């Protein structure tokens, strides 16, 4: 486990960690609002929207994320999506990788939005109906009631579960390995195979731990801000 | 001037009739105490007035604007206009826990009425002063006592300058030693001739502050009169029974 060896493999591992982090942030930023929209649809007065939303949540939570990713990566091209991703276009190799990443973002976002939707639904259930009544009596529109009164309270209730889900997401990014998007675990594993040395795995583990640690600190801080005292 | 007029208001939850044809009028400056056994429909009546419950039949007018006529509701905008003339204070305060006291007061004037912020600040200072909580402006509701919370709720309702204030048992959720400060605040409003309908179990308060008392039982208005009439010379047996049961 020489320092020299570590400094040799570290750049690649960090590059992988970069992919992991980008995926994480993009998915969080997209999946949380999408999840909230799905929650609102599940509460809609229009039954088809409710069915749609509930079916979506059921399917996304009821099948493995890996299956969904494999479906997007290998099923979508078959039905004509990503047609320009042909292997005989080497000059498009970079573009190809980019699009793989986008496909991964799509898969993760759709999946995590369903989980966030369930978390938010729980958060909404925890809000007293007196809050809606006070809002109505003061003349708030439905939109303002949702954004200014319900949403902040729902976030507070949902935050611990959102923290959990986010930590799971950091680790789930390793699923990219299965669909050949090079991320942290991919580079670590490649180095292990090449060098017959377990050090890269330990470093990868350390990097995951650091990411999770920073995330935990961040959410602790957020929870404090949402304590309203 | 007639501020609120209810005519033959009926309300059922499923097959249970909770209001069976309630009629009354409230004049400008009236302080009405509504008394009656628990489950007699007092809360439901108030909630129908401010459109938190839908009536099954009957009419409600606020300052001659119809909320509902013979069971047919006005358009959505009209309904909002009518209910905006009233403010309501709940038994359980229903403060917004994620906002400070001042923010609780200022959110509605800001987002609903879109008043200029300097004007809003003046209003919130004035009403916090009035309920004696200016020093709590930056506290969150969680750190207040029940009595303080209810005074904030009163100030928050006043911020929208309602013509009529509705109180649904404003002191019932409070420890006995905290009811006084809330009742004193409501009395202050009464002294300013703010029109109010107060559902209450505080008979002392009803006697002292109200100029009219409505007695409700079993979804009906049984009798109304001045506090002296209701408390000293009630004409109905049910009123007498009720007063005996609670004054014992
Ligand atoms: N949302 C509701 N659904 C069904 N029944 C209700 C509902 N609200 C009130 N009731 C019933 O209506 C009756 C009157 O209730 P309420 O108006 O709260 O009485 P009060 O305020 O005088 O105690 C009670 O029997 C109560 O159980
Ligand atoms: Mg009641």
Overview of this structure, please?
The complex is a heterodimer of chains A (229) and B (248). Chain A is mainly α and 229 residues long. Chain A is 79% helix and 0% strand. Chain A is built from eight helices and no strands. Chain A has helices at 3-42, 47-62, 65-78, 93-125, 129-137, 142-172, 184-195, 199-225. The longest helix of chain A is centred in the N-terminal third of the chain and has 40 residues, at 3-42. Chain A is flat. In chain A, 31% of the residues are buried. Mean pLDDT of chain A is 87; it is low at 83-98. Chain B is α/β, with parallel strands linked by helices. In chain B, 39% of the residues lie in helices and 27% in strands. Chain B has helices at residues 42-49, 76-83, 101-113, 117-130, 146-158, 176-191, 203-209, 227-232, 237-247, and strands at residues 2-13, 16-27, 31-35, 57-62, 65-69, 72-73, 86-89, 164-168, 195-199, 212-217, 220-225. In chain B, the strands form two sheets. Chain B has a six-stranded mixed sheet with strand order 7-8-9-3-10-11, sandwiched between helices. Chain B has a five-stranded antiparallel sheet with strand order 2-1-4-5-6. In chain B, a hairpin with a 2-residue loop joins strand 1 (2-13) and strand 2 (16-27). In chain B, helix 3 runs parallel beside helix 5 (146-158) and helix 4 crosses helix 5 (146-158). Chain B is globular and about 50 Å long. The termini of chain B are far apart. The model of chain B has no long low-confidence stretch (mean pLDDT 96). Residues 42-43, 169 of chain B line the site of magnesium ion. Magnesium ion binds next to helix 1 of chain B.
């Amino acid at each position: 486990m020489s320092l020299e060896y570590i400094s040799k493999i570290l750049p690649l591992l960090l590059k992988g960690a970069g992919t992991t982090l980008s995926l994480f942030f993009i998915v969080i930023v997209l999946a949380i609002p999408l999840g909230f929209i799905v929650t609102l649809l599940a509460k809609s007065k229009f039954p088809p929207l409710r069915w749609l939303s509930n079916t979506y949540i059921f399917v996304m939570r009821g099948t493995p994320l890996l299956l969904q990713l494999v479906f997007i990566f290998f099923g979508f091209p078959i039905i004509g999506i990503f047609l320009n991703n042909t292997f005989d276009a080497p000059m498009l190799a970079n573009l190809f990788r980019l699009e793989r990443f986008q496909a991964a973002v799509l898969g993760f976002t759709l999946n995590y939005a369903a989980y966030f939707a369930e978390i938010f639904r729980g958060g909404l259930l925890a809000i007293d109906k007196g809050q809606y009544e006070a809002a109505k009596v003061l003349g708030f529109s439905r939109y303002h009631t949702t954004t200014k009164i319900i949403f902040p309270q729902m976030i507070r209730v949902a935050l611990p579960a959102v923290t959990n889900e986010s930590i799971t997401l950091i680790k789930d990014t390793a699923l990219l390995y299965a669909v050949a998007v090079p991320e942290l675990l991919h580079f670590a594993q490649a180095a292990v195979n090449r060098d017959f040395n377990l050090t890269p795995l330990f470093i990868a583990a350390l990097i995951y731990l650091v990411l999770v640690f920073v995330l935990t600190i961040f959410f602790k801080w957020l929870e404090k801000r949402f304590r309203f005292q | 001037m007639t501020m609120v007029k209810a005519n033959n208001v009926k309300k059922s939850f499923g097959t249970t009739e909770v209001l069976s044809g309630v009629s009354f009028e409230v004049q400008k400056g009236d302080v009405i105490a509504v008394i009656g056994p628990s489950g007699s429909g007092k809360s439901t009546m108030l909630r129908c007035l401010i459109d938190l419950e839908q009536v099954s039949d009957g009419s409600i007018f606020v300052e001659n604007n119809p909320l509902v006529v013979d069971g047919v509701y006005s358009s959505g905008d009209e309904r909002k206009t009518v209910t905006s003339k009233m403010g309501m204070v709940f038994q359980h305060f229903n403060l917004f826990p994620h906002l400070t006291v001042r923010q609780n007061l200022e959110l509605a004037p800001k987002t609903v009425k879109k008043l200029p912020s300097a004007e809003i600040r003046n209003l919130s200072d004035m009403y916090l002063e009035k309920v004696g909580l200016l020093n709590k402006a930056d506290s969150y509701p969680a750190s207040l006592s029940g009595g303080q919370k209810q005074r904030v709720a009163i100030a928050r309702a006043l911020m929208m300058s309602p013509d009529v204030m509705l109180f649904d048992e404003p002191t019932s959720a409070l420890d006995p030693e905290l009811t006084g400060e809330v009742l004193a605040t409501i009395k202050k409003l009464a002294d300013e001739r703010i029109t109010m309908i107060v559902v209450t179990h505080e008979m002392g308060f009803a006697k002292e502050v109200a100029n009219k008392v409505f007695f409700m039982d079993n979804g009906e208005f049984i009798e109304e009169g001045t506090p002296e009439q209701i408390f000293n010379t009630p004409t109905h047996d049910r009123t007498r029974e009720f007063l005996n049961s609670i004054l014992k």
